[in-house]
Write a structure and sequence with these properties.
Structural class: alpha+beta
Order of helices and strands: HHHEEHEEEEHHHEEH
Strand content: 15-25%
Length: 211
């Protein structure tokens, strides 16, 4: 059994009943990993896994879910990062809205609070293996589990955002989390990332949140 098969073993059903289609622009951005991404979506066209802490977007949007094509539109949220998200094809996210993306034919994490990317894996299979081996850190599973124990299943298009951003000292505890719309969460943290970028030592930063 491959690591991707293990990841899918306890994942939700497909989030879209449609056959997955990846537009030419998305294929170009995915590069050599395009076929692997498409192959995963053919097995499960979008899914939640690891206690809903991991959310893989379906290929196309429907009435309940945002698809990869729409999620990567500049006008939705990525344009708010003023170039920091360029070259990335975002295909999944953790419970805090931290993104997994394909960039330069590799898989990276994208920190929504800083706009920074960090190499994670060479391909989809390696990504699956790394997630399974370190899912508590990479997906926020413990807090996702605790929150859902108290409040029920995470709704579609929602993630758990920090009231005080992690980059500004916010703690990884339930008391610092609130349920937020995923798109609004990305846009609000783009504001933080833009303020942090090239920030002189000792300079202040302002932010807003919906709690």
């Amino acid at each position: 059994m491959t690591n991707l098969e293990k990841l899918l073993l306890n994942a939700s059903p497909s989030l879209s009943e449609r056959e997955p289609e990846i537009c030419e622009h998305s294929r170009k951005m995915a590069g050599v990993l395009a076929d692997q991404l498409f192959g995963m979506l053919c097995r499960r066209n979008g899914f939640y896994a690891l206690g809903s802490a991991l959310h893989v977007f379906p290929a196309q949007s429907n009435q309940h879910e945002i698809g990869i094509v729409d999620w990567n539109e500049s006008i939705l949220w990525r344009g708010d990062y003023r170039g920091m998200a360029d070259g990335c094809l975002f295909f999944a996210e953790d419970v805090f809205g931290g993104q997994f993306c394909i960039k330069d034919n590799k898989i990276y994490t994208f920190d929504p609070e800083t706009g920074g990317v960090e190499f994670l894996a060479d391909d989809i299979e390696s990504w699956s293996q790394i997630l399974l081996s370190d899912y508590e850190v990479l997906t926020g599973y413990p807090l996702a589990h605790q929150w859902q124990e108290q409040n029920g299943k995470l709704p579609a298009t929602k993630r758990l955002l920090p009231k005080v951003p992690f980059i500004l000292g916010g703690e990884f505890v339930l008391e610092n989390l609130y349920l937020a719309d995923a798109v609004k969460g990305m846009k609000s943290r783009a504001n933080i990332a833009n303020q942090i970028k090239d920030l002189p030592d000792g300079a202040g930063i302002s932010f807003n949140f919906d709690g």
